[in-house]
Amino acid sequence: MKVCITKPGITSILHFDCRLQGYGNDAVINLVSYHQSTQSLHPSKYRGPPFRTLDYALQDAFKEFLEVRGINVELGNFLIRHLHNKEQQQYVKWLHSLAFIIKKGLESS
Asked: Record's SUPFAM superfamilies (predicted)?
């Protein structure tokens, strides 16, 4: 998941690329980048060092920074469940549409 943190009245953004290490496990930060504004969110040529190569104290500080704001494993697991449910609902809707088209085609034959 991508997390963008801003402050009211300030245009700069702290951007985190995160992932879950398997269902129910720790959230992992892949990358942290700073952008001067929302218009500068496009990928830059230099994205900084990989997160895992940063000083461990800095890594821990970034993880705590996100957790204080509710970006944690529970949120990640909620998002995964939500996306699975949404995908299932879209699939069922598609099946109903397909059944309607087939039924309509059979009736017109």
From this structure: Mitochondrial glycoprotein MAM33-like (SSF54529)
For every one of its 109 residues, what pLDDT tens digit does the chain have, with 9 covering 90 and above?
Answer: 888 898 898 888 888 988 877 655 667 888 888 888 766 666 666 667 889 999 999 999 999 999 999 888 888 888 889 999 999 999 999 999 999 999 988 888 7
Q: Tell me the Cα Rg of the chain.
A: 21
Q: Per the confidence metrics, is the pTM higher than 0.85?
A: no
- Secondary structure of 31-75 in HEC code, one letter for each residue: EEEEECCHHHCCCCCCCCCCHHHCCHHHHHHHHHHHHHCCCCHHH
Domain ranges of the chain: 2-108
